[in-house]
Amino acid sequence: MLPLHLCSALVWTSAIMLLTRSYRLYEFIYFLGIGGATQALLTPDAGIYGFPHYRWFQTFLAHILIVSSVVYMTAVERYRPTWKSLKRAIIALNIYAAFVGVVNALLGSNYLFIARKPDIPTLLDQLAPWPWYILELEVLALIVFVLLYVPFAFYDWKDANAKRPKPNEPIRTDYLDQR
Predict the structure, then answer these.
(1) What is the pTM of this model?
(2) In terms of Cα–Cα distance, which of 142, 175, 153, 171 is closest to 80?
(3) How far is Cα 179 from Cα 166, in angstroms, rounded to an integer?
């Protein structure tokens, strides 16, 4: 069992992000961590283990910590994603998926569930059969990423409109005298 499922890798990168305060990791974890961990919390893969087994607690705790680390960096450290962050996250996800696809082909594994759908019921069951669901996942990832960015886009739009002078309003120049 290699830590190649998205959330397994994100647990480690979240810890590194918190220790190093890396903005580049934040960009990646913001979109993939919230999007992926939320889906995993909705349809957890704890295997044959249920409550109160250790694996059940470990599954929920790991995914909650991924989301919590990003919320901490956003709320406390004041990090925030940008449109470029969204683009970089999509590119990084595809590079990671290509790498994991090669590993899957070599080992006969199914990390990221890109070789086949998982054996347990998940949201993937609502998508087309393999390999078509991978394309649907690309579209869904883009939609989720955009939705995760909407609050920041709205804030940017609101902030830009607040700084723009109103029609027929004189443009302030008194701040220039303070140099």
Answers:
(1) 0.79
(2) 153
(3) 25
Residue 99 has φ and ψ, to the nearest 5°, of -60, -45
- Domain coordinates in residue numbering, the chain: 6-150
Q: Is 117 left (phi over 0), alpha (psi -120 to 50) or beta?
A: beta
- For 106-152, write each residue's pLDDT tens digit: 999 999 889 998 887 777 889 999 899 999 999 999 999 999 999 99
φ/ψ bin of 147: left (φ > 0), alpha (ψ from -120 to 50), beta (otherwise): alpha
Of 153, 15, 8, residue with least CA distance to 73? 15
* Residue from 100, 99, 92, 72 nearest 24 by CA: 92
pLDDT of residue 179: 47
- For residue 106, what pLDDT is reported? 96
The low-confidence residues of the chain, meaning pLDDT below 70, are 43-49, 162-179
Cα–Cα nearest to 31, from 72, 78, 87, 77: 87
Cα–Cα distance for residue pair 169/179, rounded to 1 Å: 24
